[in-house]
Design a protein that fits this description.
heterodimer; A: about 140 residues; alpha/beta; 5-stranded parallel beta sheet; 5 helices; B: about 675 residues; 5-stranded mixed beta sheet; elongated
């Protein structure tokens, strides 16, 4: 059963998407979090197979706002931190911006799958299932 | 207006020549008509022959040597004055041991050219070959631009000098050695023939015209007479050079001015079509680059012309680009180790530079000031130190005129009084004023291009933000709609979710309306003047209802002054007013700290309604309070705090306020807290 950590600043999405995914796909277990720092702590404490990550989010206090383009690239910085904690974990990006430059940055951050918002529930679920435990080394 | 390509080529050649230090060209063998004194070489020969010099007379131009005048003088200065005056004979002998006689002559000439320049008058000297030479400086506007030489190369076989001249009491001292060189008469004949060819004389015509007795050696009186006549000629040539300089300068200035006007005209023409196309920006950038090239060369020439040891031009534009100082160009041989870059971020010294900028604007015309006054400014300090280390000379800042009062131009220079006999004159300052105007104009175009770049970036960010702000709610709606299908959900949960869906739909709808209003304003399709009778309190209540959900989420409460309910209706554009109030209240909620209040207060006056929107939370930095009203602009701390936001809300507020009254914002930190109290004050005139 792939265990998913969902990091997203939209409270409504964090409230509803995990419930919908778990209801429809019994193989998925999704933990949703709006606070990046708390999410990173959770990742250190618990085992997850996949991270579903929003890319554009308000940066945290310890981030260089300019470097993450005032939130535009916050998810990229988060992905880099995740890889430091869990180098083998799969990351699925959920993003509204996916131009060529952004895609290249995501690849550099070892984000394997990109889903453009808005996406149907099934599309998100399939991406999570594909990136699940079977892909882990 | 298109630049004439031939004229452009001519000007480029002229500027190249000036940039190389040929100010103005005295002799131009490739293009005799361009030379200033080609025909007057004849007079120089005549003077030499008349006074029993062999006729080996010539002109050594300042530009004959590679590099600037300064390089040349610097090299000359390497010869020790003590050596040359006290042990001249030994010095000459040492020089003559060198393999190349030409090299020795050049070194000697350099030294005496420097001396003639230092003394600012014609001088006679004994050259390294034991000959009597004369050096006459040509001085234009206090600057020696060239030196006319006469040479007395072995007037007769076997005679190296005239004892009358070199004995004690004579004009010059003798050489210990009587070594001989080429036969002066043969050399003279050779040069006369060359001159005949170059100047278009028939064979022997020049020689006949000279009609001088060269069989006798020059006497001391001959030297004095020659000096007198050459000095007079030097003065005439100086005047001629000055006149030519003025005329060419005026030509260059007209050309630069027309080029800048052309760039501006193109800018204005294109601006009426599309301000953001790459093609347009490319055109402007190319024009500006071209203009800068011309202005830069012109300044380089100015550096020589004014006798500046170095010249640095800064253009500061604090009203628009928020504290970036642009170093446009610089010259000078003592600046190699100065760490220049194209732009300085002067955020930290913004206030002091802004003060300098204001001061320069107040001058209106070029003003000579002591750079030491500004030596502590971070941008100027390293420059100042670098200069003081190399040159213990007075250093001056000359500020030019500032076009439209927004692009002050600072021209920094150090007057080299070794070369210059007088400080800057009123005429010089007028020149600087005009140069400053030209630089300022180009600097303004540069600023416009930078603004266009910024506007394009802002627009791109705006589109991305709109995409973000629309796609996110849609994603939410998809998820929320699916959420409602979960069978195990209670009726209460489903009802709660239905309310949230309605709120999300409203949020998306409001965004689309804002974009529509903004686009309408931008395209002039929105009629600001279309007025309706509007109940201000009702509008505030409608907005409060619309924002209630997000306010409750963050535990923020609206408090509205009840007295506003009693206000008479205002005659304003209802739709724009609604978006104005909605944006002000939405902003207050967004940037409020949790568990705080948004206070909406009001005062009714005879001629105006005043509404204030106060909140406690994220403040607005002082230097961004004007810019937040610009379209697509978002304060930096706001971007950090909240990802969503298009930067259009306050531009709508500004459009309304500009038409119906005004808007002000104050934001100050609360004592002992990181929070700020922010207050927007909206004035609506009562019609």
């Amino acid at each position: 059963m792939p265990r998913v950590l969902f990091i997203e600043d939209e409270p409504r999405l964090v409230k509803t998407l995990p419930a919908v995914l778990e209801d429809r796909y019994k193989d998925l277990q999704v933990v949703g979090m709006t606070d990046i720092i708390e999410a990173m702590n959770r990742l250190k404490e618990e085992e997850f197979d996949v991270v579903l990550l929003d890319i554009s989010m308000p940066p945290t206090e310890d981030m260089d706002s300019g470097e993450v383009e005032h939130g535009r690239l916050t998810g990229i910085a988060v992905a880099q931190s995740i890889k430091k904690i869990e180098p083998d974990i799969s990351i699925v990006a959920l993003t509204v911006v996916s131009d060529r430059a952004m895609k290249s940055k995501m690849l550099e951050a070892d984000i394997q799958t990109i889903i453009n918002k808005p996406a149907e529930i099934d599309e998100i679920a399939q991406a999570l299932l594909k990136s699940g435990p079977s892909t882990r080394k | 207006m298109k630049q004439d390509s031939d004229a452009s080529e001519e000007m480029m050649q002229l500027l190249d020549r000036y940039a190389a230090g040929r100010i103005p060209p005295l002799i131009d063998m490739e293009s005799p008509e361009a030379g200033l004194i080609d025909r007057r070489l004849f007079e120089i020969y005549q003077i030499g022959f008349r006074h029993r010099f062999s006729g080996v007379l010539g002109v050594r131009l300042a530009s004959d040597q590679p590099g600037s005048l300064k390089d040349k003088w610097k090299s000359a200065a390497n010869l020790s004055l003590e050596t040359t005056e006290q042990a001249w004979t030994g010095f000459c002998a040492a020089l003559r041991d060198k393999a190349s006689g030409d090299e020795a002559c050049i070194a000697c000439n350099r030294y005496w050219a420097w001396r003639a320049e230092e003394e600012g008058r014609a001088i006679a000297y004994l050259c390294t070959h034991g000959l009597i030479d004369l050096a006459v400086p040509i001085i234009v506007h206090d600057t020696t631009i060239s030196v006319v030489f006469s040479g007395q190369l072995f007037p007769k076989p076997g005679i190296a000098w005239n004892p009358e001249l070199v004995e004690p009491g004579g004009l010059l001292r003798p050489l210990a050695s009587g070594e001989k060189g080429v036969d002066a008469w043969e050399e003279s004949l050779k040069r006369i023939r060359q001159a005949e060819q170059q100047l278009g004389f028939a064979d022997g015509e020049l020689l006949d015209a000279l009609k001088c007795d060269v069989e006798k050696e020059a006497t001391p009186q001959d030297v004095v007479n020659t000096l007198g006549e050459l000095s007079l000629l030097g003065k005439q040539l100086s005047q001629l050079a000055a006149a030519k300089l003025e005329s060419e300068k005026s030509k260059i200035r007209t050309w630069i001015g027309s080029g800048i006007s052309s760039a501006l005209a193109q800018l204005e023409a294109e601006a009426s079509t599309d301000l953001t196309t790459k093609g347009f920006k490319g055109i402007v950038r190319a024009s500006v680059t071209k203009m800068w090239k011309h202005v830069a060369r012109y300044l380089e020439y100015t550096c020589h012309y004014f006798g500046f040891a170095y010249l640095l031009v800064l253009s500061c534009d604090y009203s628009d680009n928020g504290g970036t100082l642009t170093v446009l160009s610089h010259w000078g041989q003592w600046l190699e180790d100065f760490p220049f870059s194209k732009q300085y971020d002067c955020t930290e010294s913004h206030a002091s530079l802004q003060a300098l900028s204001s001061e320069m604007i107040a001058w209106r015309t070029a003003t000579e000031v002591d750079l030491e006054r500004y030596a502590r400014l971070p941008v100027i300090e390293p420059l100042y130190k670098s200069l003081r280390r190399h040159r213990p000379l007075p250093t001056y800042a000359v500020s030019g005129q500032f076009v439209r009062g927004i692009s002050p131009v600072l021209i920094l220079g150090s007057l080299d009084y070794r070369k210059r006999t007088t400080p800057l004159s009123g005429q010089d300052l007028r020149e600087f004023t005009e140069i400053g105007e030209e630089i300022g104009l180009v600097a303004n175009i540069c600023t416009l291009v930078a603004e266009l770049d910024e506007a394009t970036d802002r627009q791109a960010r705006f589109i991305e933000n709109v995409a973000h702000d629309i796609r996110n709610p849609i994603q939410n709606l998809i998820s929320m709609a699916n959420f409602m299908q979960i069978e195990s959900l209670s009726i209460e949960d489903k009802q709660g979710m239905a309310r949230e869906i309605a709120s999300e739909v409203r949020r998306t709808n409001e965004l689309s309306q804002r974009v529509w209003v903004l686009e309408g304003l931008r395209r002039g399709m929105f009629d600001l003047g279309e007025r309706h009778w509007v109940n201000i309190f009702d509008v505030i209540m409608r907005c409060r209802k619309s924002l209630q959900h997000s306010a409750v989420q963050n535990n923020i409460e609206f408090k509205v002054e009840e007295e506003i309910r009693e206000w008479p209706n205002a005659q304003i554009n209802e739709e724009l007013f609604y978006h104005t109030i909605l944006n002000l209240m939405d902003n207050a909620v967004k940037y409020s700290a949790p568990n705080t209040e948004v206070l909406i207060d009001g005062k009714l006056r005879a001629r105006e309604y005043e509404l204030t929107f106060g909140n406690i939370g994220l403040g607005i930095p002082e230097d961004e309070r004007e810019r937040i009203f610009q379209r697509h602009y978002r304060a930096k701390n706001a971007q950090r705090k909240i990802r969503e936001g298009t930067g259009i809300g306050l531009s709508i507020v500004k459009a309304f306020a500009d038409y119906y009254g005004g808007i002000e914002v104050v934001s100050y930190p609360l004592e002992g807290s990181s929070r700020h109290h922010t207050l927007f004050r909206l004035i609506i005139r009562r019609e």
